[in-house]
Write a structure and sequence with these properties.
Elements: H1 47-76, H2 81-110, H3 116-145
Helix pairs in contact: 1-2, 1-3, 2-3
Length: about 150
């Protein structure tokens, strides 16, 4: 059998064996979509996606804690100005975390590699931002129409 490149096969080489060296004319070309085990360069991790997921979970847990603390303060009658200020600062902090999860998640979705964690972090961040914006926008619209 003749070689299309005109070079002879190395001694002892059989079809299916790994190529003897990377410069061999028999070496397989690596596809960008091939798994790493086949010589591809596919990314196996997405640290920005993991960061978005962690920020999203921290923001979500903080948001739930904020809502529980506010409901407890209202129901027990201990909703003083100091409690209001602490809850207000906590709410702004959770909003900053939600924007961080949203921004980091969008950045991670645009990069290569796995996108599952980035998608979840983006979804959590977007949900929390919308949950923060909707009551403020609807209240503003209602007051302006009143």
């Amino acid at each position: 059998m003749s070689d299309p490149t005109g070079s002879a096969q190395p001694l002892g080489w059989r079809p299916g064996d790994p190529p003897p060296d990377p410069t061999s004319p028999y070496a397989q070309a690596a596809s960008p979509y091939a798994p790493v085990s086949l010589g591809g360069s596919a990314a196996t991790s997405n640290p920005a996606g993991r960061t978005a997921l962690v920020l999203g979970f921290v923001a979500l847990v903080g948001w739930i804690a904020y809502e529980v603390a506010e409901n407890v303060a209202f129901s027990t009658g201990s909703y003083s100005r100091a409690v209001f200020q602490v809850l207000r600062v906590g709410g702004w902090f959770q909003l900053i975390l939600a924007f961080g999860a949203l921004g980091t998640g969008i950045y991670a979705l645009r990069r290569g590699g796995p996108r599952g964690a980035a998608g979840i972090g983006t979804g959590i961040g977007l949900t929390l931002v919308v949950l923060w914006l909707v009551p403020r926008v609807t209240t503003s619209l209602a007051l302006s129409l009143w």
